[in-house]
Write the structure tokens for this entry.
Amino acid sequence: MSKTIAKNRGVNIATGMRAEDFLPPELAALLNSWLQRALVDGPFRTEFTTLDGRVIEFAFNPIVAGGKKAGVSIFGKDISDRSRAAANLSALIESTKDIIWSVGRNYRLITFNRELKRAFETNFGITPVEGMLPEDLLPPERAAVFPPLYERALADGPFRTEYTTLDGRTVEMAFNPIVVRGEKTGISVFGKDVTEQKAAERARLEAEKKYRDIFDGALEGIFQTSLDGKLLTANPAMAQMLGYDSQDYSTAMGRYIVPDVWVDPGDRSRFLQLLEEKIVVRGYECRFKRKDGSVIWVSLNPRRIYAADGVTPINEGFIEDITERKWVEMQLRESEERYRATFEQAAVGIVHISLEGRLLLCNSRFAEIIGYPTEEVSGLTIQQITAPGDAAATAGAIEQLAGRESAPITLEKRYIRKDGSRTWVRATASVQRDSEGRALHLMTFVADINAHKAAEERLSQALETLQASEERYRTVFQTRAC
């Protein structure tokens, strides 16, 4: 101290000097006031900034001898670095949008930042000052909230809690005991507005719940697998589809069970190659093995995505059990094959005719009856191949069949063959309808009755000959009798 004064003032301090002897008048007066304060009030500390900008912390203590105050001892410590750190901390505290304050053990306000001051002035019309209690700052019901929180911080240590402001915003508050030289001297509080954060969190949780509800409740299987066949996740529908119960389903996660479910490894290789090329695959049909070894048909709808790390590629998608559909398709195919065999191999002609009279489809026997190649029949009309004398009856039958309800109709009629010759047929026609009863087309079974007609002609001729013979015999007999 003496060196500093000697350097700055050019005065060497000596015993017996007064403050006025080595300090400027204004500083001497300040030092004398501090000395008087120590003698009257006892020990205290204060800070002083020197001419070169350094901060000195002075501790003043009265000297007591024989029960009387005989003088004052002064201890000075350069706290410039600590002061700058405190200034930086203060600037940081004042720059934040968080609210920060501290209270003593008596819960009176000690320090607070600008944001806390603004909040109280805006919401309550009160300007906080040091020494205020919670009830000085807040309505009774809100003031009562804080003493138990302060007590908890002193008793149990740091903790966090949430507080709802008057305007409905959510503030997360961190309560921390202030410890000085091992003694708890107060509580510091840091409040952060987490309204938007909480809203985003609620939205995220709601989205996750909706996804989980869809995931767990979906009728289709949903899955994620690694590229090498490890099952990453699967919903209950997929587990049930493959014959796993809930415990098996949980155990299967993370295992390389995917390759084992493919009946044909070649199907899996083709599937993976297609997914590699297309990224998205729709309706890939293949056979899977269930846990019990039974086989089902499935339709896969996967895509290639990246896992949560944004780096690892995985496959995810939907799987649908199409075993029943495949069975129906097989039955339908077999039925169609049987129908086609019956249609083509029938001993009678079969022809489909539109309600307007156009020939739509026929078997080879019908084409043979009318003397046309099969491929030339489609496009002909029934009027073109019907003998003029039978045209009216044919048109009437079609009109009758197109009605709402009608039984099959059978006609014996003549067709005009491609070479112009006539051929007798027996045609039995019925109408084919859709599920709502609308007429679609006629289906007609045609039998060649030329032989039958020829037999009828011969019988008719024989009867005529017999009748003529009977007439001649009767005439001769009657003549002789006369």
